[in-house]
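# step 3/5: fold
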Amino acid sequence: MRKKINVGLIGVGRLGTMYAEFLTTRVVNVNLVAVADIIPERATGCAERFDVPKAYFSHQEINDDKELDAVIVTATTVNHKEIVIDAASKSKPIFCEKPMTLSLNDAREMKTAIDKYGVFYQQGYMRRFDTGFAAVKKKIDEGVIGTPVVFRGSSRDPYLPTLEYLYPHNSGGQILDMAIHDIDIARWYMGEFSTIYSIGGVLAFPEVEPTGDTDNVIMSFKFDSGCLGEIDISRNGVYGYDIRAEVLGTKGTLQAGYLRETPILVLTKEGVTHDVVPYFPERFCNAYVSQLNDFLNNLTNNLEPMIKIEDGIAGLQVAVAASVSLKENKIVRVSDF
């Protein structure tokens, strides 16, 4: 029987609470022995709810815990750099949620620390662990659609986050906040980005205007291979949580994603209807669990992660370039960032 890995969870807001539930109910070979949050009542509340022995109120305290074999970072993105560098300096293997941080300078400082201390780091991009998205990658590699030539990605959220969150110093802006997953999948399927052009605006929610953010953006781009792509993101997918990707190849097309949550159609004289996926916890629950199991398996067996810190930086680089393109209304070269 394999020894269970003792982990600490840093940041127990909405996503962190989801992770706590997964780690205590569905993920194998793990003991969640500590949680931390800068809001004390969140830390203690999460510890009580999931029967976690220890609750800390700072990342320094949890990173100092000698009982922990690894830490999982689900804190607010603006705090990732400080947390990751501190964990690396204390020789803690790290799993860090996306986006890794909000600026490329911070991301590169994180990599410097990871390299300096030689610690294990796995970047979180759970869509790669979704069965549909993973199946598309496998078929691309098998040559089922010939040579991929066009990528299309679409992410539509069913409602607007709080206006406070939308300020770019909190969210990084709509592209970093919403398109980072699409960018990672595009890189995974098609290779590195060369140039990108973004257009967008406040089209559905006038109250977003004062935040300096957008609610709809479309990005078009070229890959280093010369192949083409586009990504659209929207905060007004009012009908449900709609996440899709498509790859057009020389011999066919592959599509990933679905909108219907329950495999049932209701057919009445009023029409044909089906339900929809409410939001990301329901859509990607199994992918999150698979991702955590993969992290623990990599640690147990001393394996290289599929998603490294370089992938986090590369995705962020594309997102930053796309955000600058949106602001300056021009085509930009990703390698300039």
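# step 4/5: annotate
The chain has two domains: 5-119, 128-284+315-336.
# step 5/5: archive (pending)
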